[in-house]
Amino acid sequence: MSNRYAVGDRIRISARYAPGHVRTPFYVRGAVGHIERVLTEFLDPEREAFGINAGTETQLYRVRLDQSTLWPDYTGEPDDVLELEIYEHWLEPAPDSSHQENPS
Amino acid sequence: MPVTPDHGPSREPALLIAHSPHDVGGQPEGPVNVSDHELTPFEKRCHALLNVLDVHKLVNTEEKRRGVEELGEVIIGTLGYYQRWAVSAAKILNEKGLVTTQELGRKMIEVRARLTAEDQ
Predict the structure, then answer these.
(1) Where are the alpha helices (DSSP H) in A1-104?
(2) Among A55-59, A62-66, A93-97, B30-34, which is the least confidently predicted range?
(3) Residue A55's CB: how many other CB atoms inside 10 A?
(4) Which domains does chain A have, with CATH numbers?
C-alpha cells in the first residue's frame, strides 16, 4: 500500500464542515503543518460510526503544527508544536511557502 | 467557508451543524481537574458492557462516540462520562433494532424497583 504523503511533506488539514462523526478537531481545520510520522491503517471512523466494521482501511499520519500558527495570541515558546493524528482523507498538499500564511 | 481556528460556538449554520458539542478544543474554559477518580461499580460495569458490545460487533467504539455526540450540548454537559456511554449504547441498540424502547422502558422500571428495595 503506497501512502500519499511521506515524512516531512507540507500539508494542510482540510477545512470541511459536513455533519457526521469526525475525528478531526474543529480548531485544526485549515491549519498548515507537516507529516511527522507515517502510522498504519485503521478503519475509517467516519464509516465505523455508522456500523461499517470492515473494508474502509484508511492511512493515519502524525501531523506536526506550530502552536503559533494555530493561536493568533499564543504566548508560549516560538518553537512549541502540536502533534495530532489525522486520516489521509483530511490532508491536502501544501506548498513549501505555506508556512508563511496564517490560517486564521 | 472561513478557515478559522475555533474559539467558541458559531451561529453560522454549516459550522453549527458540523461542530459537535463534545469538540471543545480551543474554547475558553477554567482549569482542568486532574485529580484521580476511583471508578464506581456502575462505571466499571458500564465500561465492561461497552467492551462486550464492541467485541460482539453490536456497538463499536465509533458508534458509541457518535451516539454521545448526538446527545446535544445540554445532555453532554449534564451527564457523567459513563452515563453518556450508557445512553449512547441504548440509542445505538435501538437504532439497530436489537432493543426496543418498550423493552428498555420496562427494564428500567424493574431495575429501579430492585435498587429502591436494596436501599431500604
Answers:
(1) 45-48, 67-70
(2) A93-97
(3) 8
(4) 10-98 (2.30.30.50)
| Contact A102/B at CB under 8 A | no
Answer yes or no: do A26 and B6 touch at CB < 8 A.
yes
Within 10 angstroms of residue B67's Cβ, the number of other Cβ atoms is 23
Contact between chains at A48 and B62 (C-beta distance less than 8 A): yes
Residue of chain B whose alpha carbon sits nearest to that of A54: B57
Q: What DSSP line would sit under B54-65, residue for residue?
A: HHTTSS-HHHHH
pTM of the entire structure? 0.85
pLDDT at B22 over 60: yes
DSSP output for B20-50: -TT--TTS----------PPPHHHHHHHHHH
CB contact under 8 A, A15 and B17: no
Rounded Cα distance, B31 and B118, in Å: 39
Q: In DSSP terms, which residues pair with A64 in a beta bridge?
A: A34, A83
Could you give the CA distance from residue B43 to residue B57 in angstroms, rounded to a whole number? 21
CB contacts, 8 Å: B17 with chain A: 17, 19
Give the domains, in start order, of chain B with CATH numbers.
Answer: 38-119 (1.10.472.20)
Quick check: A51 and B5 CB within 8 A?
no
Interface of A with B in 61-100 (CB under 8 A): 70-72
Rg (CA), chain B: 18
Cell of B54: 464492541
Residue written as grid cell 478559522: B4
